[in-house]
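Provenance and format

Records in this collection were gathered into a single text stream. Each protein contributes a sequence line and a token line. The two records reproduced below are adjacent in the stream.
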Amino acid sequence: QTSPTTHTKFGHYYDISKKMSPELCQSVKWHSFYLHEELSAEAGMRVWNMNSGYARLLQSIQRIISQEGFDGSDPQKKQRNVLRIGIQSLGSPLWGDDVCCSDAPEDPHSLTKFLYALRGLLRKSLSACIITVPAHLIQNKAIIERVTNLSDMVVGLESFIGSERETNPLYKDYHGLVHVRQIPRLNSLICDVSDTKDLAFRLKRKLFTIERLHLPPDLSGTVSRASKQELAGSTGLLSSGCGAVAMGNRHLDF
């Protein structure tokens, strides 16, 4: 929401410096999937015309949904929570996919086929899934567009590490940008567009905060020559409309 909220406390506040206790992890029912262990018994298996890693993961999710009673088509005999699924670095070489290694991968459709089948499982079950994709490693932009279209909500993080913005004093208070690529559009032909587009994140000792990007005015004398020329050109266009006189490359005076 663009307007300030009236509540005194909004959102969730997690202390990222704390770790979950072993007792809490043991009390929660959870399932893990390690591709190396899953493929040790049957290597090279291909199901639904996709690579073995995606096929085994899809079978594991389908088995948990069926055995644990999260299938939406079956009558629910008791109250249940939502099955939460987390998949890390989907599309990376760890899953046996080469979309991150080449601009023309051997099987560019395995990733999208897996997402399409997973989308069908989520629609008919009491489950939700969050996936991380190393988009900066995938060279084929068409694959990124397909992944975006097959997702309900897409959020991208752009870090300042290794870029010119890391040493730029204008971005000294932030560590990266947040790009809202797509938001849910259920029962609609087009997706809604958020009014807030300039978002940045800041990593603190205990918090990961997302806020609006507020850049301070650049009043220093280290403005680049290109910026000065652009400013001079813009002032030349404005001089005819506002009545001020701009001679040469001089700035407007008010």
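Adjacent record:
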Amino acid sequence: EDFLNLIFKAMMKDSLNSSHPVSSAVQSSEQIQEMFDAVSYIKGASLLLMLKHYLSKEVFQAGIEIYLHNHKYGSARSDDLWDSMNEITNGTLDVKKLMKTWILHKGFPLVTVVRKGKIISLQQEKFLYRVEPENWTSDARLL
């Protein structure tokens, strides 16, 4: 329950225009410090959990083991982790391409499902939290 609360707080922060991607190039030590916040840690953890469930626990763990073995006593980039996952899936899935759509962009997708009889349509768009004008009194603005 506590982790879910953290995820929702991070999602709220990530839905603001002031958010940032989980991974991005930095030019200064100040930019590095700015990157280590709830979006980076909690969204990053959520993305890894999502990937673990998508690949299966066994495949994900094997990919992590390859990654740790290949980069022990050294430094690594996020692409190195995705390459390890690609290695364990034998190239059947482009994990790097999949994960870059999540880590290189701020925010998250909102999927809207509409059902009309037997027809189901889906629409995906970037979710942005919009603060209503100050004179708005309904609690609906908090949803």
